[in-house]
Design goal:
Elements: H1 2-14, E1 27-31, H2 38-47, E2 61-65, H3 78-93, E3 100-103, H4 106-110, H5 120-131, H6 138-145, H7 150-156, H8 162-173, E4 177-178, E5 181-185, E6 188-193, H9 199-204, H10 213-236, E7 249-250, E8 259-260, E9 265-267, E10 288-290, E11 299-302, H11 307-313, E12 329-334, E13 339-342, E14 351-356, E15 373-375, E16 377-378
Parallel strand pairs: 1-2, 2-3, 3-4, 6-11, 9-10, 11-14
Antiparallel strand pairs: 1-15, 5-6, 5-16, 7-8, 12-13, 12-14
């Protein structure tokens, strides 16, 4: 079975064995945040006919991974959950860059940003301490350990370890991670990124508000290259230096989680409860942004935002979301009232689209229920 071959291949990759296969890509797909076990991820790919012989993708298939390869809810021990993320990421990265494109997600970036200067011993100590923490003690805990919140250690990034950080560092140094991928879908320009690009990022990149997807992709590639270059020598010496992606993505501080490029989500500021946490709308480090902040001259596709978040954050425009995880969704915006539809909906006259590609894999009883998005054209990474 090809799924079992992929499992064996993933383990051999982590053990430093096996070289990248050749490919002649004819068709591309985008897969939402692969935060699950490798077995479930392989089951999804096998179900859609994307696995070939030898435990690799079919040589005619290309894949864009939308970011967030680590951390998922499970009853498995943390060391198992952490290793599953390494298996998925390592297996994907072992394919040629002409076949697999890796977007940087906030959970990937946390390995080298939030905990870029941490050690296994220190993180283990924080995990032990946070288990007995009362809610009233959490703010002091975050301040003492110089992290955004106790929840990052207890829940969000609980499986973190130094091996994961080293893996992410190496892929950044090798240029395998990207902030955006330029593509086409149904004859329209499409920009794929983990959490989306708003006019805030266009302004920070020095781009005109009507800049096309190609220029945005090039500017983001240059930004990431420059940020990695600042820590490259230290990382090569195995120094624990945190990466900084500001001002596009703002690193966390005690009491305030990361915001901006890799962490924000579109939301309706007028929905009930939207203003209960006003700091999430801080323009300096946004975790939520109004739909009106999205560029309207090209379509975008993102991970990061699953079905339940779409339903909550984009109410009442999201009445048509699927009742369960798995299906993808489309947000139409521009002229008229925003509207969320189930599936990858065709373009509407006078409107742009934001395609939500996170099927919430970890919440699916059957991973083969997750949908993938076919892409017409994927451009090469900017030089």
């Amino acid at each position: 079975m090809r799924r079992q071959q992929a499992l064996a291949r993933a383990d051999s990759v982590l053990n430093g064995q096996g070289g990248p296969p050749s490919c002649d890509v004819e068709r591309w797909f985008a897969v939402g945040d692969p935060q699950t076990s490798f077995d479930r991820f392989a089951a999804l790919l096998e179900h859609h006919g994307l696995l070939g012989d030898g435990g690799w993708l079919r040589p005619d298939v290309g894949l864009v991974s939308m970011g967030d390869h680590f951390d998922y809810g499970s009853a498995d021990p943390l060391e198992v959950v952490g290793r599953e993320g390494q298996r998925i990421l390592g297996w994907l990265a072992a394919h040629p860059r002409a076949q697999v494109r890796l977007l940087l997600g906030n959970h990937d970036a946390a390995r080298v940003i939030e905990f870029g200067a941490c050690s296994d011993a220190r993180f283990d100590a924080m995990r032990a301490e946070v288990r007995g923490l009362a809610p009233a003690q959490e703010a002091a805990f975050a301040l003492r350990h110089e992290i955004a919140s106790a929840g990052l250690v207890r829940r969000d990034y609980a499986p973190w370890n130094e091996a994961q950080r080293a893996q992410v560092q190496r892929l950044l140094l090798d240029g395998r991670y990207e902030l955006a991928v330029q593509a086409e879908h149904e004859g329209r320009a499409l920009l794929l990124s983990h959490a989306g690009v708003t006019v805030r990022e266009l302004s920070m990149l020095g781009l005109a508000m009507d800049a096309g997807a190609e220029r945005v992709c090039r500017a983001l590639a240059a930004h990431l290259t420059n940020c990695v270059a600042r820590v490259a020598e230290g990382w090569d010496r195995a120094e624990a230096l945190p990466l900084a992606l500001g001002p596009l993505h703002v690193s966390p501080v005690p009491g305030r989680e990361a915001g901006g490029l890799l962490a924000h989500r579109p939301a309706n500021p007028s929905r009930p409860g939207a203003q209960d946490r006003p700091w999430e709308w801080d323009p300096e480090r946004p975790r939520r942004f109004p739909v009106e902040r999205l560029p309207t001259h090209f379509d975008q596709a993102v991970g990061h935002t699953g079905r339940s978040t779409i339903e909550r954050e984009l109410a009442p425009w999201s009445a048509a979301v699927a009742p369960d995880p798995g299906p993808l969704h489309t947000l139409h915006f521009g002229d008229g009232v925003p509207l969320v539809e189930r599936g990858i909906a065709p373009p509407r006259a006078g409107q742009a689209r934001l395609l939500f590609l996170d099927p919430s894999l970890s919440k699916l009883a059957d991973p083969t229920a997750a949908e993938l998005m076919p892409i017409d054209v994927v451009a090469e990474r900017p030089a």
